[in-house]
Design a protein that fits this description.
The chain is mainly alpha-helical. About 50% of the residues lie in helices and about 0% in strands. It has helices at about 5-20, 40-55, 70-80. Helix 1 (about 5-20) packs across helix 2 and helix 1 (about 5-20) packs across helix 3. The radius of gyration is 11 Å and the shape is globular. The two termini are about 15 Å apart. The relative contact order is 0.20.
């Protein structure tokens, strides 16, 4: 799958969160806080990162995810990586 645009990446991140953690779609908004709103812990975040790496076909550095707080933050990190 080739993810290039922000809407494509957003759709893939939301789908991954829904499939991986069973989070209801209506809770998966760009501004949703991963840890507070969606109750994703650090182990879950690693699982998400691994799944997203497979989707984009590029390796993500864990440091890139340290500042991630919202779904939109995740999308921005991925968008930057795929457009390098």
């Amino acid at each position: 799958m080739s993810l290039k645009t922000k809407p494509e990446i957003m759709a893939a991140v939301i789908a991954s969160l829904h499939e991986t953690f069973g989070i209801e779609m209506e809770r998966l908004k760009p501004e949703a806080q991963l840890y507070q709103d969606l109750e994703i812990d650090s182990i879950d975040a690693i699982d998400l990162m691994v799944k997203l790496q497979k989707l984009i076909g590029k390796r993500m550095q864990p440091e890139a995810f340290k500042t991630v707080r919202t779904i939109d933050d995740v999308v921005n990190v991925i968008e930057k990586l795929v457009n390098e």
